[in-house]
């Protein structure tokens, strides 16, 4: 698979593929997750704060199950997962809560012929309907598809393998500590979007405050090895 050249700007190739996290990065589902967690804990007589929910961002369902059970939720892991997935799926089905600039950059990459994968810690019951609605992803890697979820690199390595491209020629876009760790460990070039979590500086990590500030030219530069800080000053 050949790199796709930019149609304007610096003559650098675009990434061989772009690998996208879903929750928080492309769509603002975190309020849905936190709301569902709060509802479940309170129904069992406990307390779940916004900070508790924020601490779950980017973690696999297994971590949420343990945390919720520790707060008194007397349900099995499957029952908790079904409840949370159902609430979030209903929210997304009502209206896709796009992050600013997300749909625009997806369409720009698709128009440039760049393959894309959705790489999410959510289960396929959430990932597949979203991917089908968007219609721009070549591959979907969900929690159902891996034995070692983020922060392990397996999800990103699998996505690159399914796309048939070297992971080192891919750019991964993430918004959480766990996701960034997974992407960096895979060997991909990585962009951290600071939405709910401040992302610490680390070698090779580019950072942006919003996808609305990310361009094809930026992606080409990052794929070529540049490390960019596109966050607002101040």
Describe this structure in words.
There is one protein chain. The chain is α/β, with parallel strands linked by helices and 234 residues long. It is 41% helix and 11% strand. It has nine helices and six strands, in the order E-H-H-H-H-H-E-H-E-H-E-H-E-E-H. The protein has helices at 30-43, 50-55, 61-70, 77-94, 102-111, 124-134, 154-163, 177-186, 216-223, and strands spanning 17-20, 116-119, 139-141, 170-174, 189-193, 205-208. Helix 1 (30-43) crosses helix 4 (77-94). The longest helix is centred in the middle third of the chain and has 18 residues, at 77-94. The N and C termini lie far apart (41 Å). Mean pLDDT is 91; it is low at 1-10.
Strand content: 5-15%
Based on helices, strands and strand pairing, what is the structural class? Answer: alpha/beta
- Per DSSP, the total helix count is 9
Which spans have pLDDT < 50 for at least 5 consecutive residues? 1-10
**Rg, Cα atoms, Å:** 18 Å
What does the main sheet amount to?
Answer: 6 strands, parallel
The helix-strand sequence is: EHHHHHEHEHEHEEH
Mean pLDDT: 91
Report how far apart the termini are. Answer: 41 Å
Question: What's the helix and strand layout?
Answer:
Layout lengths: L16 E4 L9 H14 L6 H6 L5 H10 L6 H18 L7 H10 L4 E4 L4 H11 L4 E3 L12 H10 L6 E5 L2 H10 L2 E5 L11 E4 L7 H8 L11
Parallel strand pairs: 1-2, 1-4, 2-3, 4-5, 5-6
Helix pairs in contact: 1-4, 4-6
